[in-house]
């Protein structure tokens, strides 16, 4: 449950589409258990929610990046006044 000072997480449509695409790719190629990858993403989101500045400064101004442990994925997000906005879910080898 979010703490009193935690900001809510919101997703851009593009980030949700990327998330779906990454999970589908993992499942189709049998690279990992997609449920387990989803759990790892949820854990990373919990960390970001609790500690928004946990990620490193992003490659684009005003963004932060946090790797999803145990996967090649990175969550790209922006801390705003009232929320944390998830901007993208990318493979570490993808360029922005």
Descriptive overview:
With 96 residues, the protein is of the alpha+beta class. It has one domain (9-91): YaeB-like fold, CATH 3.30.2310.20. Helices cover 35% and strands 25% of the residues. The chain is built from 2 helices and 5 strands; from the N terminus they run βααββββ. It has helices at 13-29, 34-50; strands spanning 9-11, 56-57, 64-67, 73-79, 84-91. The chain has a 5-stranded mixed β-sheet with strand order 1-5-4-3-2. It is globular.
Provide keyphrases for this structure:
96 residues, alpha+beta, YaeB-like fold, 5 strands, 2 helices
Topology summary:
Blueprint: E1 9-11, H1 13-29, H2 34-50, E2 56-57, E3 64-67, E4 73-79, E5 84-91
Parallel strand pairs: 1-5
Antiparallel strand pairs: 2-3, 3-4, 4-5
Short structural summary:
This protein is α+β, with helices and mostly antiparallel strands and 96 residues long. It contains two helices and five strands, in the order E-H-H-E-E-E-E.
* Mean pLDDT reading: 90
Could you say which structural class the secondary elements and strand pairing correspond to? alpha+beta
Task: Give the biggest beta sheet.
Answer: 5 strands, mixed
Major beta sheet, strand line-up:
1-5-4-3-2
Level-2 CATH architecture:
2-Layer Sandwich
Radius of gyration: 13 Å
């Amino acid at each position: 449950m979010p703490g009193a000072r935690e900001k809510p997480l919101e997703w851009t449509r593009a980030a949700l589409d990327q998330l779906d695409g990454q999970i589908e790719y993992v499942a189709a190629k049998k690279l990992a258990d997609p449920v387990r990858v989803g759990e790892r993403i949820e854990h990373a989101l919990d960390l970001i929610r609790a500690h928004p500045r946990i990620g490193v400064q992003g490659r684009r101004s005003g963004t932060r990046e946090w790797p999803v442990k145990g996967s090649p994925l990175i969550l790209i997000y922006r801390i705003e006044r009232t929320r944390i906005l998830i901007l993208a879910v990318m493979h570490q080898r993808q360029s922005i």
